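Notebook, p. 212. Picked up where the previous page left off. The plan for this session was modest: take the two constructs that came back from the sequencing core last week, fold each one, and keep the raw output in the notebook itself so nobody has to go hunting through shared drives later. Recording the first one now, exactly as returned: residue sequence, then the structure token string.
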Amino acid sequence: QTFVVDNRPGAGGNLGLEALARSDNDGYTIGILTTAHPINSWLYKKPGYDLKTSFSPIGFLQEGPIMLVVHPSLPVNSVADFIAYAKANPGKLNFATSGTGNSTHMAGELFCNRAQIKMTHVPYKGSAPAIADTIAGVCELSFDTMISALPHVKAGKLKAIAITTGKRSSMTPDVPCIAETLPGFDVSAWNGMVAPAGTPKDVIDRLHAAMVDALASPNVTKRFTEMGVTPRAMQPEEFHKFILQEAEMWGKTVQAAKITID
């Protein structure tokens, strides 16, 4: 079958998902729901959809850790070191991310909340300028996806302190998880596939089966590994519960950090 990809950027991904919510529920229009959308449900007064009722989840696609990287001159080598340094220098550290309200920003805010430290968020328009300014020392650290940050770690331009997922990554087995210092900390940049609400169950089941087959493909597995992400088996009903759990978790983070978009 031929797929037509209709990219609709804007409002942190809300415009695309709003268009999906208004589409026919015949199974011929599907969309990608990401970490951003449970966050957006708290950041935007009118996101254009309801995570509980606007979609029929198809399944989880993949997830990857967010990496905490610092400028090599920062005198820290572990999460414990970092927390101690931040507490000794409250408000003096600036963390760069690819934008306000996205998964990297919220990972940083959640870290501040859990570690009880204060840092200043510096949002950029994308990962490239955020990482560039961290390398240049404009910001002391950055939270970014592994695919963006890891090449600079390997080149010695940045120092990897930790990743945000609950388990270490096979790509960076020597880089610890934040959870090893702050138990229960488990954040990933993820995405999954959804259809408009009311899409017939037999159609959802067929799409889910096709998705599972595709994720098992050696070519897909290889490409995911190169990107530092992994597929994750999840039935539609389980994915729906996961989405709502993410929304609840991020809601607490957004409220604690007093972040608003509109």
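Okay, moving on. Second construct, recorded in the same format:
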Amino acid sequence: MTLNSVAARTPDGHPLFDNLSLAFGRERTAVVGRNGVGKTTLLRLVAGLAEPAEGTLARAGTVGWLAQTYEPAPGETVADTLGAAGPLALLARVLAGDGSVEDMAEADWTLETRLDEALAQVGLVGLALDRPTSSLSGGEQTRLRLAGLMLAAPDLIVLDEPTNHLDILSIQWLENYLSRFEGAVIVISHDRAFVDNITNRTIEATMGRIYDYKAKYTHYLQLRKERREWKQQ
């Protein structure tokens, strides 16, 4: 993922950042800064959910997005949230003998096993795929969406406050998963311990500027302190 001279503004035209050029490789990056400085806007640009006011973005791979808040659509089921409803319907047609030649070629014979494994890994063993997503708690919905990311296996995972609604065991599982993940990760989180455990790069958004530190969060805090002291001299 590469951002070249990117600018972003609020709906009323207030600049969030300008002339921003960044590259994201296979690393785990924390984006930090006060509320309102454009952290989520930056993540939405990276995820392809928003367009920059200026500049360009180039993506070489797939992106998975976990939003801070989630509102299931009316009638949305667990299978829908996992992104598996269509492939499951296709597989059912094939197994019932009603599938076309194209269906036979596209059928994912490992899907049901991978669904079971993904749900088990996030602590949702045996969750009915036709259950309404809205009937799940906030924490269960977050874990369900994480299972969907695992199934999609994107090259880059973008997470906006992923530990919201998660208990300690779920957070520990997420840390372990992201630590083993071979792609890139970009995360916003107020959970300092979580950020420090999983990231090796910190991007600070502040007052319309971006500071890029090749450092874990705790080390970044020391480097930021030194930067501010140097400016005051």
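Notes on construct two before I forget. Strands lie at 2-9, 15-23, 28-32, 54-58, 63-66, 156-160, 184-188, 201-206, 209-213.
Flagging for discussion at group meeting.
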